[in-house]
């Protein structure tokens, strides 16, 4: 498979809501894995895209990123595979808040009783299973962001195939989100 690398975002994380909230696609391998390149781009020597710990090897994916909803209603982030994922243990969607932005963000999915997310200033990441063999797909994720002008609600949905993975993000109304997210407030422990 040849991946067109022009116009791609070669960063680990891609904007969902300005500088405040970003997303990355992470693939985790056994620590001894030797990465096999499947596209024209090779990020093996870039520490932003490959992180080896004593227990595993984590690889992050560049993307065609048009998912920043700070100023628009909908967008898409198309991650492109650059390594063979056959030996992957699992994939995760990693959401990250920027601590300098001091923004309140909560997450929820239908079927779950409580909203979750960035509970303390020290918790900057939330990792969610993403189309790996450990789960049946990706449950749409709803996001509540407290902005200067009020709450903004988003939904993150996904698609994954051998050709790559993408997330679509769109603004939704409060009536479209799980009750746990509606009741979550910055002044509460919710």
Verbal overview:
This protein has 190 residues and is mainly β. It has a domain at 14-103 and 124-137 and 158-170. The protein contains one helix and 13 strands, in the order E-E-E-E-E-E-E-E-E-E-E-E-E-H. It has one helix at residues 179-183, and strands at 14-17, 21-30, 50-52, 56-60, 63-66, 74-79, 90-97, 104-108, 116-117, 125-129, 141-147, 150-161, 164-172. A seven-stranded antiparallel β-sheet has the order 5-6-13-12-11-8-9. The N and C termini lie far apart (45 Å). The mean pLDDT is 89.
Task: Give a short summary of the structure.
This protein has about 190 residues and is mainly β. The protein has 1 helix and 13 strands, in the order βββββββββββββα.
* Secondary structure tally: strands: 13
Strand content bin: 35-45%
- Give the proportion of residues in helices: under 10%
- Runs in which pLDDT lies below 50 for 5 or more consecutive residues are none
The overall pLDDT, averaged over residues, is 89
Q: What count of helical segments does DSSP give?
A: 1
Strand order of the largest sheet: 5-6-13-12-11-8-9
Overall form: globular
- Helix-strand topology string: EEEEEEEEEEEEEH
Radius of gyration: 17 Å
Which class of secondary structure composition applies to the elements?
mainly beta
Largest sheet: 7 strands, antiparallel
Tell me the distance between the termini. Answer: 45 Å
């Amino acid at each position: 498979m040849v991946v067109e690398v022009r116009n791609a975002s070669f960063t680990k994380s891609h904007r969902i809501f300005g500088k405040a909230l970003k997303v990355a696609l992470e693939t985790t391998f056994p620590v001894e894995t030797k990465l096999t390149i499947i596209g024209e781009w090779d990020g093996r020597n870039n520490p932003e895209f490959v992180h080896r710990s004593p227990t595993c090897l984590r690889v992050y994916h560049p993307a065609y990123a048009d998912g920043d909803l700070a100023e628009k209603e909908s967008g898409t982030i198309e991650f492109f595979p650059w390594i063979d994922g056959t030996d992957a243990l699992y994939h995760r969607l990693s959401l990250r808040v920027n601590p300098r932005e001091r923004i309140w963000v909560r997450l929820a999915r239908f079927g779950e009783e409580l909203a979750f997310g960035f509970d303390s200033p020290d918790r900057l990441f939330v990792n969610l299973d993403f189309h790996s063999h450990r789960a049946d797909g990706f449950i749409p994720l709803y996001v509540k962001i407290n902005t200067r002008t009020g709450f903004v609600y988003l939904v993150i949905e996904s698609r994954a195939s051998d050709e790559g993975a993408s997330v679509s993000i769109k603004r939704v109304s409060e009536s479209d989100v799980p009750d746990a997210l509606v009741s979550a407030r910055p002044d509460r422990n919710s």
